[in-house]
Structures are given as C-alpha cells and as structure tokens.
Amino acid sequence: MENSKDIYVLYFNTRDELLRVDLRKVAYFKADRNYTDVFFLNGVHLTLPTSLMAIEQMLDSDKLKGRTLPFVRIGRSLIVNISQIIHINLLRGEMVLNDMESSNVLRIEVPKEALKKVKELFNHKS
C-alpha cells in the first residue's frame, strides 16, 4: 500500500545508488548538462542522473496528477519551488528562497527577463 506522503517523492536508481527526493523539501532544480542538481531547503545538494527536462516531465506525471506542486520552470536551467520565494531583485538578477521556518536562505542568480516573468506570476495572484 502506498503511503500518501510517497506521492511527493521521486526515486532515482543508478547501478550504485538510490536517491530519494522529497518534493515538499526541494527549493529548486538546476540543469547541469545531462544531470540535474537539486537543492533542498536545509542546504543539502544532490546531483541527479537525469536531465532537467526529465524532471519537468516527472513533475507533470500521472503519479502527481491532482496534487498541487508549486514548481515553475524559469528559463532553460531552473525549476523553482515558488512557494519558497521571499525576494526577487531585478537589479541584482537574484531570487531569494526560504521556507520561513529555518534560518537557511538560498540565493539564486537568475536572468532579469526570467525574474520579470516570475514577478508577473505573483502579480496575477494578488
């Protein structure tokens, strides 16, 4: 029987490793050629053996259908958990993420045009 929390978990198997990614704790995914770096809110970082496009497809998969996942693709190299964005600075080209529960703050350099689109997402919500 599948645990309801498991619907938010992605598993990545390689010959030598098993990587478990709890999507509720992910700050963002960043492309690294054929791999993807995942950064968690607690500061942990893993490299996944798959592309960012594959991650995007997994986030849209049938397993996760019906669940609201706060991820949005930003440009060619990032998928960000928008529920963790606390600051967007267009002049610096920077996005700041924090879960408002821990002292960890993650800063990401993002192209200004991509930041403008994210800012527009928030403007439409208010």
Notes on the protein architecture:
The chain is α+β, with helices and mostly antiparallel strands. The protein has two helices and ten strands, in the order βββββαβββββα. It has helices at 52-59, 112-125; strands at residues 9-13, 18-22, 26-32, 35-40, 45-48, 71-74, 78-81, 85-89, 94-97, 106-109. It has a five-stranded antiparallel β-sheet, with helices on both faces. A three-stranded antiparallel β-sheet has the order 8-9-10, with helices on one face. The longest helix is centred in the C-terminal third of the chain and has 14 residues, at 112-125. The radius of gyration is 15 Å and the shape is globular.
Give the N-to-C terminal Cα separation. 40 Å
The number of helices is 2
Return the structural class: alpha+beta
Spell the H/E element sequence: EEEEEHEEEEEH
Number of strands: 10
- Let me know the largest β-sheet: 5 strands, antiparallel
Helix content percent band = 10-25%
General form: globular
Strand order of the largest sheet: 5-4-3-7-6
What's the rounded overall pLDDT mean? 88
Poorly predicted sequence stretches spanning 5 or more consecutive residues:
none
Beta fraction: 35-45%
CA radius of gyration is 15 Å
Lay out the secondary structure.
Elements: E1 9-13, E2 18-22, E3 26-32, E4 35-40, E5 45-48, H1 52-59, E6 71-74, E7 78-81, E8 85-89, E9 94-97, E10 106-109, H2 112-125
Antiparallel strand pairs: 1-2, 3-4, 3-7, 4-5, 6-7, 8-9, 9-10
Summarize the model shown.
The chain has helices at residues 52-59, 112-125, and strands spanning 9-13, 18-22, 26-32, 35-40, 45-48, 71-74, 78-81, 85-89, 94-97, 106-109. It has 126 residues and is of the alpha+beta class.
